């Protein structure tokens, strides 16, 4: 089968690999679509000593069941399914508490990232992927190409939003920074599930136009004037919640400068930005809650799938043939993708 393989720093190529054998508790999924994420660009940029070199990439995966292991129940050949982002064990303390994105087995404290398809195990940028039945969710009549990015592009903002759900009253102001793969889904989820005022920011006018059409009450250029405008819009108080889906230094600075006292910031983007915190004098208003959000739980994923099946959210997709994977990586790296690129075998 064909498989998009990480071969050296900043380089992928399509290689021929054997169709995977499956265990008794696994299914063989015929891939219908595999999303391409900025995390994939980050992974292949980690250098030539990366232990993931040689692996098949792809952590946003949906398809149809091709073969079922002897001990698998509840799945039949032809069923459409979405692969979980995090391969949680289901039995540790965190999993049993519903925090499976913090699984002690899949995500030991010193790990680069939780065990996921394409991160420590074979990924879905291929014709087939072996998956434990425990790690599949049904997608009903959704097209697997449209559904694949839900595994991260919708799951991750859904989880970040759910962590501050109690703050999203009808009189709240939300700032969401970055309207790319994750951010454009966050905007739709917020518009579909809250009555709060949404201020969306990006540097790209096309993405700002998208925001105005998909639920933003105000869409602003993310520039040197943005903080003053947000504070003006909130009578100098600041935003109740700020989501940063970029994570570069200017967006981190913006998030810190516009959050209100007692508000919350969710840093999701992996852009490498930072902020200084001093215990006494801070640099933050009192009472601000900050979380470095990662992925989401299976409950979050089922919520995202339900919203997609109801037509309330949808991923903006650019389709690429699997054989054009190198071009898709190049286009994403150079900012030519609006929404998500999806590789279609």
Automatic annotation (TrEMBL):
SMART domains in alphabetical order: PKS_ER
Lineage: superkingdom: Bacteria
Protein keywords: Metal-binding, Oxidoreductase, Zinc
Keyword Oxidoreductase included in the entry's annotation: yes
InterPro entries: ADH-like_C, ADH-like_N, ADH_Zn_CS, ER, GroES-like_sf, NAD(P)-bd_dom_sf, Zn_alcohol_dh
Domain annotation Enoyl reductase (ER): ranges: 8-343
GO MF annotation list: alcohol dehydrogenase (NAD+) activity; zinc ion binding
Pfam families: ADH_N, ADH_zinc_N
EC number, as in UniProt: 1.1.1.1
Keyword Metal-binding part of the UniProt annotation: yes
Cofactor: Zn(2+)
Assigned protein family: Belongs to the zinc-containing alcohol dehydrogenase family.
Name of the protein: Alcohol dehydrogenase
